[in-house]
Amino acid sequence: MDDENPCVGICIIGEDGYCEGCGRSEDEIYGTPPAPAPTPASTPAQTGADGKAA
């Protein structure tokens, strides 16, 4: 354990959303999850060498 990390090795998230060992929330322990990557709204039609739709 280092000075920056208050973890005491009792990692149980209680009903209140906080760890019973260190008192931190899940966001504080694990960080906020990254936002999902945006998905394209539509895929443009693929064209052949002549520029016409395949």
Determine the fraction of residues in helical runs and give it as a percent range.
under 10%
Biggest sheet: strands, sense, closure?
none
| Cα separation of the termini | 61 Å
Number of helices: 1
Overall, the morphology is rod-shaped
Helical/strand content category: little secondary structure
What pattern of helices and strands is seen along the backbone? H
Could you tell me the mean pLDDT? Answer: 81
* Percent range for β-strand residues: under 5%
In the predicted model, the low-confidence regions spanning at least 5 consecutive residues are none
> What Rg is obtained from the alpha carbons, in whole angstroms?
24 Å
Please tally the β strands and state the result: 0
Give a quick precis of the structure.
It contains 1 helix and no strands.
Topology:
Blueprint: H1 26-30
Q: Which tags fit this structure?
A:
single chain; 54 residues; 1 helix
Structural write-up:
- There is one protein chain.
- 2% of the residues are buried.
- The mean pLDDT is 81.
- With 54 residues, the protein is mostly loops.
- The chain has one helix at residues 26-30.
- The chain is 9% helix and 0% strand.
- The longest helix is centred in the middle third of the chain and has 5 residues, at 26-30.
- The protein is built from one helix and no strands.
